[in-house]
Specification:
Elements lengths: L8 E2 H19 L5 H23 L7 E2 L1 H13 L12 H14 L6 H17 L13 H22 L1
Antiparallel strand pairs: 1-2
Helix pairs in contact: 1-2, 1-6, 2-4, 2-6, 4-5, 5-6
């Protein structure tokens, strides 16, 4: 019998997944053949951090549903803000980073410039090394690329609350 799953995603669900997948990725990184799984899990944790930060900033509470209407609302907000970054089926870390930054600027509550620049840099590192289709393929990253991805995922974990406060 299958376990009972929540009927919708929420910030609480995403934050739990963010944390769990980060540690899954760090654990897999330690295995000789775990690089592809580690890369996927680490990137996924960053995707969840960016989504949660945006939805918290947009006013959702931790138990509010995040489903197709909320994702479409984020996409519409991006258009209003003049954001040209593609959603990539709502999995693009670049989209969520750009939307988070633009939305903060529109609210007249931008991140500290040093933090924003680091956010953009770390997102670029993840974007260059992770994509959602990795879940279907045994992509190989070099040890160096995986180290950069792990360091970026760690940065997101440590700085996550600052992204939406």
């Amino acid at each position: 019998m299958r376990a009972s799953l929540p009927t919708h995603d929420s910030i609480q669900e995403f934050e739990g997944a963010r944390h769990d997948r980060l540690w899954d990725g760090m654990t897999l990184w330690g295995y000789r053949d775990g690089a592809a799984g580690a890369a996927y899990m680490l990137g996924y944790s960053v995707e969840m951090a960016l989504k949660c930060a945006y939805f918290r900033l947009a006013g959702l509470r931790v138990f509010d549903p995040i489903a197709r209407p909320e994702l479409r609302s984020a996409e519409a907000r991006a258009r209003v803000l003049g954001l040209a970054t593609q959603t990539e089926s709502f999995h693009s870390v670049q989209f969520w980073c750009d939307l988070l930054c633009k939305h903060r600027h529109d609210l007249l509550s931008p991140l500290d410039p040093t933090l924003e620049q680091r956010l953009v840099t770390e997102t670029g590192i993840v974007y260059d090394r992770w994509w959602v289709d990795m879940r279907y393929k045994a992509e190989k990253l070099s040890r160096n690329e995986l180290e950069h991805l792990a360091a970026a995922a760690d940065w997101f974990d440590r700085n996550y609350p600052d992204l939406y406060r």
